[in-house]
């Protein structure tokens, strides 16, 4: 990589980390309280990022300035992995990205959990051959997108997502008690 | 609770202590995604690069040969690519933000955890380590995390990513309800 590309990647990561910290999602308390339905910060950040990001990326792809990078729909592996991820996120109190941000804001327990993440990555690598034979190829549908699967065009998905998110956020803002 | 937060906030310069709206932050991450797709050709993600780096830690544990011959690390060798430098940037940006907003502080046991499981640092560290191991194993099995699947995959309307989002949130709600239930 050129120095410019390295600097660009570092800057992208730094802006991402800055935004995560400013949005309070590097706080374990905020993430735990999302799953306890007492604080909707995580859903607000993710929902807005998906709608705003998705509309822009759709335009970039439609104008030939980007392509899609869709992950394989290995349905069994994704479902099992996501379930484990949900368990880990509640017990740890972070996801992998917010954990790295939290370490830099002084959360020592986030650092301990990051060592656990290294252990998890090593265990995964060691069990990879078995998983490849028994789990990863079960219900493997390939790089499928919802518009292809349903015949409903991208734009319609985003109109529904944007309106749905807007209504949901309005409901959250008006019904959630204000907390310090 | 309100007054305590307010008193701490008063010591910090007014301009710096403003928390940004989660909608503003979400929109910022969305715009960052445009740049990631359009300019770098590499959607935002964290755990792929994390796996590459984990091979460094694996070497003293299982040996150079075992790492070199591992099929997973063959497909995902340690290389200093976009994803790894992006990963290095995250703590840097979070640190700058925490210092500027006056919110940098050592945290051994978070409040929510302390209220439920007590102040034991050992207990919290063991849970964090275990939770970290489970979350990364799950992320690799699913092929991504909250960033790669949740945001980057979600905004591409990928079937895999929306399955991930649905199962992850549902499981999290159930585990949280069990963990924080009142006795």
TrEMBL record, chain A:
Keyword Signal: no
Transmembrane parts of this sequence: 41-61, 73-94, 100-126, 155-172
Keywords (A to Z) from UniProt: Membrane, Transmembrane, Transmembrane helix
Keyword Secreted: no
Stated name of the protein: YeeE/YedE family protein
Species this protein is from: Bradyrhizobium quebecense
Automatic annotation (TrEMBL), chain B:
Domain of life: Bacteria
Transmembrane domains' residue ranges: 20-41, 82-104, 125-142, 162-180
Cellular component, GO annotation: plasma membrane
InterPro entries: Sulf_transp_TsuA/YedE (IPR007272)
Membrane-topology descriptor: Multi-pass membrane protein
Subcellular location: Cell inner membrane
UniProt-listed Pfam families: Sulf_transp (PF04143)
Alphabetic keyword roster: Cell inner membrane, Cell membrane, Membrane, Transmembrane, Transmembrane helix, Transport
Family to which the UniProt record says this protein belongs: Belongs to the TsuA/YedE (TC 9.B.102) family.
PANTHER family: INNER MEMBRANE PROTEIN YEDE, SULPHUR TRANSPORT DOMAIN-CONTAINING PROTEIN
Name of the molecule in the record: YeeE/YedE family protein
């Amino acid at each position: 990589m050129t120095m410019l590309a390295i600097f660009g990647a570092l800057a992208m990561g730094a802006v991402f980390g800055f935004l995560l910290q400013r949005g309070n999602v590097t706080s374990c308390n905020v993430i735990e309280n999302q799953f306890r339905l007492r604080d909707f910060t995580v859903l607000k950040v993710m929902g807005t990022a998906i709608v705003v990001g998705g509309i822009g990326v759709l335009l970039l792809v439609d104008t030939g300035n980007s392509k899609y990078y869709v992950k394989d729909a290995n349905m069994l592996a994704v479902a099992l992995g996501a379930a484990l991820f949900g368990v880990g996120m509640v017990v740890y109190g972070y996801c992998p990205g917010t954990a790295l941000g939290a370490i830099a804001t002084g959360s020592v327990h986030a650092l301990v959990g990051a060592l656990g993440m290294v252990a998890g990555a090593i265990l995964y690598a060691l069990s990879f051959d078995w998983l490849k034979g028994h789990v990863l190829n079960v219900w493997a549908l390939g790089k499928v997108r919802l518009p292809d699967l349903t015949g409903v065009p991208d734009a319609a998905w985003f109109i529904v997502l944007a309106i749905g998110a807007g209504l949901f956020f309005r409901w959250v803002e008006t019904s959630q008690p204000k907390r310090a | 609770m309100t007054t305590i937060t307010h008193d701490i906030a008063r010591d910090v310069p007014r301009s710096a202590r403003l928390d940004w709206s989660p909608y503003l932050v979400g929109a910022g991450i969305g715009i960052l995604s445009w740049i990631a797709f359009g300019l770098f050709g590499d959607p935002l993600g964290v755990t792929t690069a994390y796996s590459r780096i984990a091979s460094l830690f694996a070497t003293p544990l299982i040996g150079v040969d075992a790492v070199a011959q591992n099929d997973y690390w063959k497909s995902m060798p340690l290389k200093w690519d976009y994803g790894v430098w992006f990963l290095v940037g995250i703590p840097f940006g979070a640190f700058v933000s925490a210092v500027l907003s006056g919110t940098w502080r050592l945290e051994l046991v978070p409040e929510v955890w302390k209220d439920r499981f007590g102040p034991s640092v050992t207990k919290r560290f063991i849970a964090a380590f275990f939770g970290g191991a489970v979350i990364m194993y799950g992320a690799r099995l699913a092929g991504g995390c909250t960033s790669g699947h949740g945001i980057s995959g979600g905004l591409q309307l990928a079937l895999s990513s929306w399955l991930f989002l649905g199962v992850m949130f549902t499981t999290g709600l159930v585990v949280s309800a069990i963990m924080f239930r009142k006795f």
